[in-house]
Amino acid sequence: MEKEMSIEEIESQFESEWVLIEDPITDEELNVIKGTILHHSKDRDEVYRKAVTLHPKRSAVIYTGSIPEDTAVVL
Description:
By secondary structure, this protein is an alpha+beta fold. It is about 25% helix and about 35% strand. A 4-stranded antiparallel β-sheet has the order 1-3-2-4.
């Protein structure tokens, strides 16, 4: 895909998907503001496999949906 988009564009175009972003631009809290979309999917593992295949120097993976309340998040 390789198209630069703002976080607002990403969230509206890829609702409830995992998104691989190359060279993300972040704010001081490291929230993604914009970046180049390399891949997206509803399947998280597919996005991580694509990241391994493409091996970008700098990247971020974000989820554009809501995380269910009964889900644990490990940072």
